[in-house]
Write a structure and sequence with these properties.
Largest interface: A-B, 48 and 49 residues
Structural class of chain B: mainly alpha
Bound molecules: fe (ii) ion
Strand order of the largest sheet of chain A: 1-2-3-4-7-8-9-12
Distance between the termini of chain A: 34 Å
Oligomer: heterodimer
Number of helices of chain B: 11
CATH superfamily of chain A: Divalent-metal-dependent TIM barrel enzymes
CATH architecture of chain A: Alpha-Beta Barrel
Helix content of chain B: 40-55%
Largest sheet of chain A: 8 strands, parallel, barrel
Order of helices and strands of chain B: HHHHHHHEEHEEHHHE
Chain lengths: ~300, ~260
């Protein structure tokens, strides 16, 4: 396959107050520690108890509202914690035009939150002006790479910063696929000069659904571009697995997390629970498990070298 | 982009209409058949949008029962697919859909309950605004009272009902099954708003509903008094003062002004 340069990224205009500039590829991966997805069920408890969480991740769309509780608690919690923004509707791989209104709302929210970073998913989510509110797989083709790269660059220009793209779980693959998922991911993020949010559960789920080895995936991604990790649970339906994100992180995902950290070094990590939300305490326990496993992984990795 | 766009169109058609063209794009691999893999996405689509409606219309779903509500959700998503990046807005056309579409239109309770529940959804995250306090009224000279106009909180909504929707909503909160109610003797209006962070609502008496409607349209206080004479005769001014105090206490008023509505 042909190699493209990052040409367009080099001569775009970035005003001085925007940081970090999208062309700053030398930027080291920051380490924000261990975070949680911010869910409305926990707003009060977080404000009242100031739990030992290093940062929170919000679903951006949930805060694109005019007022009321969501923005009240967002501002209160932002006073105490760093916040990362995670979107679900960018549809970076969609064939509909990029939604300028949505991007404007995203930028406005980013101005309010001053997030650690902004992420969305490497997927498409709608067609013909309809939002389907799911994360659909892209075909792993040169055509799709070129399409996504061009759109990522425009999004990054609009936001004045690089974005992270997350690998999604998928349940089918296309006949036109010309490469494995990790090669597709790598090509997109390197050519667009963007970053990666690696969802370990999604790798596990897709590995089972498509019959690949998770280790091949980890070997195929560009390590320095992985700035964030999602940990979550899933539901096993026998001959396939669905990333329901409504269960505790299971043993195989913890194992895969450990080998990820061994390969990548410290990466900001969070538990992502989207449904069947448990009390905050039980998520804090899971987060402690993540801390323990990450520390162990780093020790082993250091011991190896 | 021909291939990518065609594939996404076929995928969209498979998920929203059960169309079979996507089948030819999908690889046959060990594990589930392509049809079953496509069905995972199609089922998830219906389930997710139904879930969004169930969240926003919890009492309507309880009144109808899971089965009939799922039928409604499928009909609604076919007619009013989501066109907003956030699922928060997906349900916005449901009250109108229920009013216009049989068989649901034959039972007006459904649309009215839906309209009330949607007003609660809207009040939840509508713009913030600081209400005035009773002290602010103390500064108004007596001569200015007749021309006094009010600005109301941006979360405030008035829902017209012909059934006891608020009582029904409360009953559905407390009981699993509820009898469908008889219509009210007279149409009523339900006031919905957010006070601080708390969403509130109450059914208004007719005189309050008429007076409040007039004031939201920019009528001065003198007109409120006049309107209230129908119910209160010589006591109309006293009633108007009580209503104003109630509205202020409820956090409904965000500004007071002169002949021109405050801005
Ligand atoms: Fe994720």
């Amino acid at each position: 396959m042909g190699r493209l340069t990052n040409g367009p990224a080099m001569n775009r205009q970035v005003s001085v107050h925007m940081a970090p500039p999208a062309t700053n590829r030398a930027a080291e991966r920051p380490f924000a520690g261990f975070g949680l997805g911010l869910r409305p069920d926990h707003f009060r408890t977080i404000v009242d108890t100031r739990p030992a969480v290093d940062w929170f991740e919000i679903i951006s769309e949930n805060f694109m509202v005019a007022g009321g509780k969501p923005l009240y608690y967002l501002d209160r919690i932002r006073e105490e914690y760093p916040i990362a923004m995670h979107g679900v509707s960018l549809s970076i791989g969609g064939s509909d035009p990029l939604d300028a209104g949505y991007l404007g709302a995203l930028k406005a929210l980013a101005d309010r939150v001053e997030p650690l970073w902004i992420s969305d998913h490497l997927c498409w989510t709608g067609h013909g002006g309809q939002h389907l509110h799911d994360l659909y797989p892209l075909p792993y083709t040169e055509e799709a790479i070129a399409h996504v790269v061009e759109r990522v660059q425009r999004v990054q220009d609009t936001l004045g910063q690089r974005i992270l793209l997350e690998n999604v779980s998928s349940y089918l693959s296309y006949r036109v696929d010309a490469m494995p998922e990790w090669e597709f991911l790598r090509a997109v993020v390197e050519r667009a000069d963007c970053l990666v949010l690696l969802d370990i559960n999604n790798i596990h789920v897709s590995a089972i659904n498509h019959g690949f080895a998770p280790g091949d995936y980890l070997d195929g991604i560009p390590p320095k571009r992985v700035w964030q990790i999602h940990l979550a649970g899933h539901t096993d339906y026998g001959d396939y697995v669905i990333d329901t994100h409504d269960q505790p992180v299971p043993a195989p995902v913890w194992d895969l997390y450990e080998s990820t950290i061994q390969r990548l070094g410290p990466v900001s990590t969070m538990i992502e629970r989207d449904d069947n939300i448990p009390p905050l305490d039980s998520l804090l326990e899971e987060l402690d498990t993540a801390r323990t496993i990450a520390a162990r992984a780093l020790e082993t990795a250091n011991g190896d070298t | 982009m021909a291939t990518l766009e065609q594939l996404q169109r076929d995928f969209w058609a498979a998920v929203t209409q059960g169309d079979s063209a996507l089948r030819d794009h999908v690889t046959t691999t060990p594990g589930p058949d392509p049809e079953d893999r496509i069905a995972i996405y199609a089922n998830a689509y219906t389930a997710r949008l139904t879930q969004a409606l169930t969240t926003d219309y919890k009492r309507l779903a309880a009144l109808m029962g899971d089965h009939l509500f799922a039928d409604l959700a499928r009909a609604y998503m076919a007619r009013h697919p989501s066109t907003h990046p956030s699922l928060r807005y997906f349900g916005r056309s449901l009250p109108g859909f229920l009013e216009r579409t049989r068989p649901w239109a034959d039972e007006p309770t459904l649309a009215e309950l839906a309209r009330f529940e949607w007003a609660l959804v809207e009040a939840f995250d509508a713009p913030d605004a600081d209400p005035v306090t009773v002290d602010a009224m103390a500064d108004v000279p007596a001569s200015d009272w007749p021309g006094l106009t009010l600005r109301f909180h941006p979360t405030m909504q008035i829902v017209a009902v012909t059934y006891p929707v608020v009582a029904l909503w409360r009953a559905l909160d407390e009981h699993d099954t509820v009898e469908k109610p008889d219509p009210l003797d007279h149409p009523a209006r339900v006031l919905v708003w957010r006070h601080g962070l708390t969403t509130r609502f109450r059914t208004m008496d007719t005189d309050e509903a008429v007076g409040l409607s007039a004031m939201t349209e920019g009528a001065p206080f003198a007109e409120l008094c006049e309107a209230l004479t129908e119910w209160h005769g010589p006591q109309a001014a006293a009633r108007a003062a009580i209503l104003l105090k109630t509205w202020i206490g409820d956090g409904l008023i965000t500004a007071v002004g002169g002949r021109e509505p405050p801005c």
